[in-house]
Write a structure and sequence with these properties.
The complex is a heterodimer of chains A (about 110) and B (about 120).
Chain A lengths: L3 E2 L4 E5 L4 E7 L6 E7 L6 E7 L4 E4 L2 E6 L4 E6 L8 E8 L3 E3 L3 E6 L1
Parallel strand pairs in A: 2-11
Antiparallel strand pairs in A: 1-3, 3-8, 4-5, 4-9, 6-7, 7-8, 9-10, 9-11
Chain B lengths: L4 E3 L2 E4 L5 E6 L6 E7 L5 E8 L2 E4 L8 E4 L6 E5 L8 E8 L11 E2 L3 E5 L1
Parallel strand pairs in B: 2-11
Antiparallel strand pairs in B: 1-3, 3-8, 4-5, 4-9, 5-6, 7-8, 9-10, 9-11
The chains are: A mainly beta (about 110), B mainly beta (about 120).
Chain lengths: ~110, ~120
């Protein structure tokens, strides 16, 4: 039962442009959402989070948007840089955390 | 402050052997989580532990898998009689004692890649 879905397994973007990664969830009890970034042969690292009482959280080049009515969140990276190339996992939690399958972002120079 | 430590980083076992994966949480963290990443798949939750207690093991296979987090020492994920399908990357994460445990930001270790021959 996949409660958190990332429907795009991969995304390719030109350096300097915006990257938009999407995530959908099914459990309306989720009240905290996170994005993790993962490089090959390393563990995921925390990137940015948002509580369900907000609809936007911004940290430098990274912004997460939450649309509770649509059960959808997105991560915007602008401007995208080659070092952003990684797998991005969306996660959602109530008392347990559930991860999506990940989206591999490639930023081309 | 060292991050989450996992060892070994790579583990090779033959079918039927036992695999033991160790995780030392960040200093001051009392919540430990184990995840499995199968090839071409995302992270799958396995188990959530606090010191000497299993809080949620809803993601653990019913047989052959067990986990513990003793009062002293690392958390151990144990897989008995491994099969080829157990080949995966196993990640441990930890979070601090305050908050609701499962909702806290989790800090991940580098993972253990298990290969079953």
């Amino acid at each position: 039962d996949q409660q958190v879905k990332q429907n795009s397994p991969s995304l390719s973007v030109q350096e300097g442009r915006i990257s938009i990664l999407n995530c959908d969830y099914t459990n309306s009890m989720f009240d905290y959402f996170l994005w993790y970034k993962k490089y090959p042969a390393e563990g995921p690292t925390f990137l940015i989070s948002i509580s369900s009482i907000k609809d936007k959280n911004e940290d430098g080049r990274f912004t997460v948007f939450l649309n509770k009515s649509a059960k959808h969140l997105s991560l915007h990276i602008v401007p995208s840089q080659p070092g952003d190339s990684a797998v991005y996992f969306c996660a959602a939690s109530d008392n347990d955390m559930r991860f999506g399958a990940g989206t591999r972002l490639t930023v081309k120079p | 402050n060292a991050g989450v430590m996992q060892n070994p980083r790579h583990l090779v076992r033959r079918r039927g052997q036992e695999a033991r994966l160790r995780c030392s949480p960040m200093k001051g963290h009392s919540h430990v989580y184990w995840y499995r990443q199968l090839p071409e798949e995302g992270l799958k939750f396995m188990v959530y532990l606090q010191k000497e207690n299993i809080i949620d093991e809803s993601g653990m296979p019913k047989e052959r898998f067990s986990a513990e987090f003793p009062k002293e020492g690392p958390s151990i994920l144990r897989i008995q009689q491994v099969v080829r399908g157990d080949s995966a990357a196993y990640f441990c994460a930890s979070s601090p004692p305050q908050g609701r445990g499962g909702t806290d930001t989790q800090y991940f270790g580098p993972g253990t890649r298990l290969t079953v021959l």
